[in-house]
Amino acid sequence: MRLFVAILLSEPVKDMLMQTIRQLQPAVLDGRFSHRENLHLTLAFLGESSLKPAQQALHQLSGPSFAMTVEGVGRFRRDGGDILWAGVRKNPDLSALALQVQQAFSQKGFSLEKRPFAAHLTLGRQGLLPEGFDLKAFSKTLPASSMQVERVSLMKSERINGRLTYTEMDFVGLNKNREQK
Ligand code: ATP
Ligand code: MG
Fold first, then answer.
1. How much distance in Å is there from the Cα of 95 to the middle of ligand 2?
2. Do 120 and 43 touch, CB atoms closer than 8 A?
């Protein structure tokens, strides 16, 4: 099955992101936006793999629960149209977790992206913004939203009747009390 490791989002963060999508929609000339229930932050993409070893690697993860602030938007330019994403405020706990995920899954034999982790939440794909659209200025008008990250999820990705569907197959909890680390 097609697997990835992700942080699922709180309802208030999803509210804020849907608000951002609604504001972007009239501005874009073309593009497909994410469905609310699919919004997430990918820590590692495993691709076609078996569940068991992925679960084993997942359960090696440990660390503190931490706060994460989602804010602003940006784009990755692609030939078929931009990936439009929401950003995450600089966060050493998140970077450490992403590194730990890379190490745990690599050690277990998963071949992961070599590119360094760049936290982003995909809002839309094949996005086409009007020439001269000032995404930076737009980004500055958006509210931020924070949440507590308390678990890391192992997700299955599949198309069900043509619809992209993500299912949480397993998760590992992060330590809620830093002192007990
Ligand atoms: P679709 O590919 O159908 O448009 P999707 O990209 O959301 O949808 P998947 O391709 O299954 O679905 O990817 C699941 C998650 O992993 C997404 O967050 C996606 O951005 C991320 N991802 C996919 N491929 C890679 C990759 N090669 N490197 C890093 N992250 C990836
Ligand atoms: Mg994809």
1. 22
2. no
